[in-house]
Amino acid sequence: EIVLTQSPTTMAASPGEKVTLTCLASSSVNYMYWYQQKSSASPKLLIYYTSILASGVPDRFSGSGSGTSYSLTISSMEAEDAAIYYCLQLTSTPRTFGGGTKLELK
Amino acid sequence: EVQLVESGGGLVQPGRSMKLSCAASGFTFNNYDMAWVCQAPKKGLEWVATISYDGSSTYYRDSVKGRFTISRDNAKSTLYLQMDSLRSEDTATYYCAREPLFNYWGQGTLVTVSS
User: Cβ B101–A99 below 8 Å, yes or no?
Assistant: First the structure.
């Protein structure tokens, strides 16, 4: 099973601040997928195939990485970005999610 | 508009069974693999199972193998999760999601396993 480790577990950012979240895989994966979950809502796809922005997602979000190291960047934090972010690998079964990063507004 | 609507959750005693449904609309259901993902209270997301577009292949996480069965009825555009021998640790909100990108999710249905 590929284990995904997200860091930090929790962080706070001020409006306008650049934010970088990381996801490390225990084995190499082909792509990484990123999801945002607010309160008790359903997860929302942000990034697929490591760096492609999902439809309707603001372009302040971007993704990068390869192999075992991936990141999600918010170029300029906005209040609406406060949420929990999860990475997901689909390279092998079982599909696995990272433990999540809780991003708060400072 | 793509819609996934789960139903069937509720309170169930340990050891009993429950069947969840996910009604799909707004897309050609039999073109897509589908999945169930769960989230225990205040915990992260966990993939549960996936079924291929035609139902010929199924995949499960180890903790539910032999207890849960994923199935689909393409004529009814509906996905199912039969959960048997339920345990307290199965308590979670269960989401159905469309593969391969998990870009569409239902609103979730809460399953509480407790005596």
Answer: no
